[in-house]
Amino acid sequence: MEGLTTRGRVARVVATLVVAALTLAGTFFADDTVFPFAPFRMFSTADNPDEPVLVLRTDGVDTTGRRFELNERNAGVRRAEIEAQIERFKADPALLRSVQESYTARNPGKPPLVEVDIVEVAHHLRHAQPTGEITEKVLARYHP
User: Fold this and answer.
1) SS3 string of the chain?
2) What is this structure's pTM?
3) Mean pLDDT in each 10-residue stretch from start to end of the chain (144 residues)?
């Protein structure tokens, strides 16, 4: 078995030093966007224990006036899909038409939707414990 040539050893040492330098610099000066050359801080930090926990919910209102949550089962839309595009929905609530159409296609014979809302639900905390106070704020509303 042959050993590495001098050139091969130098290339490996240089590559190791470059990766080490990038990782060290990323540790002190970068954020999650340059992972793996920076620590993944998303899971290594804690939120303020007195700040509310925010959760998005998508609601539908049908022609009978009934309000209910739209989810993967009844509308084919996961909360993560809404969260990922929340700024687009806030800027143009008409994009929620696709949610309304998906609900209609999955629920033939049920009363149609007259409104689709994205609601931000804030669960308020005090010293990292729920206070029982919950507030809701409509971030986007679509009327077909």
Assistant:
1) CCCCCHHHHHHHHHHHHHHHHHHHHHHHHCCHHHCCCCCCHHHCCCCCCCCCEEEEEEEEEECCCCEEECCHHHHCCCHHHHHHCHHHHHHCHHHHHHHHHHHHHHCCCCCCEEEEEEEEEEEEEECCEEEEEEEEEEEEEECC
2) 0.69
3) 84 94 84 75 77 95 97 94 95 96 95 97 94 96 92
